[in-house]
Amino acid sequence: MPAEPTVFSQVMGFLSHNDFNRCVERYSGNRNVRRFSCMDQFLCLAFAQLTCRESLRDIEACLRAMRPKLYHMGIRGHVARSTLADANENRDWRIYADFAQVLIAQARPLYQNHSFGVELDNTVYALDSTTIDLCLSLFPWARFRKAKGAVKLHTLLKLRGSIPEFIHVTAGNVHDVNILDILADITLCQAAKNYFDEQGFKGKLPSISTLKQELAELEKQRRPLYAEYKKANQKFKDLCVAKSNASRILGVDKNRTASRGHDTEF
Predict the structure, then answer these.
(1) Whole-prediction pTM value?
(2) Where are the domains of the chain?
(3) What are the beta bridge partners of residue 168?
């Protein structure tokens, strides 16, 4: 009798393996990997998040307790605490960051017409933060208090669907008010991007790397021109000084001539 798919495998079935594999290939995530692939790592972390596991030991104990079902859950590698710890330390985090953007892009259209109880013309956002406690012996750079380490995760949520629009990690003592300046810059850049897209320039604007290369070329061209500008500017200043001195001398001579004529009349 064929085994029924687990609830976890059914939930993970909504994920696009092709998109995930593209993210892995982009950063060579499976290079020199024999057993525990990036997909295995992602499934273990997803299982830990959905079941509220609190540590690597907790994840290992829970998954090993149902070892006969791991294959049906999609996990092909051997789950061990040390293996998962090494994967978390050595794998490129951008793999999962890019895949998260893919999932968010898929989820946004699903909540486009979702109502949250209040009829508003514009989009509503909520800014909140979560303090994540860290061990100072392992993370000495994250000092929060005298004997406590922490970082703060600032999240901007779109209330229509509760989808994160912006996430920023700072030190534990940074207040949410300080994040508003960053959000203002991001909003301005997003508005400019939307404007160019509406004008038909989507995909035609130069990339940041191209702009940096052009800026470097302009800097090279500016240096010799700036030297010539300094010489011309100094020459102009000298001429202004000479003109001022000449005007002052001629003014003194005129005053002397006028005073002599005045004495002769008497």
Answers:
(1) 0.61
(2) 7-105, 122-198, 206-249
(3) 154
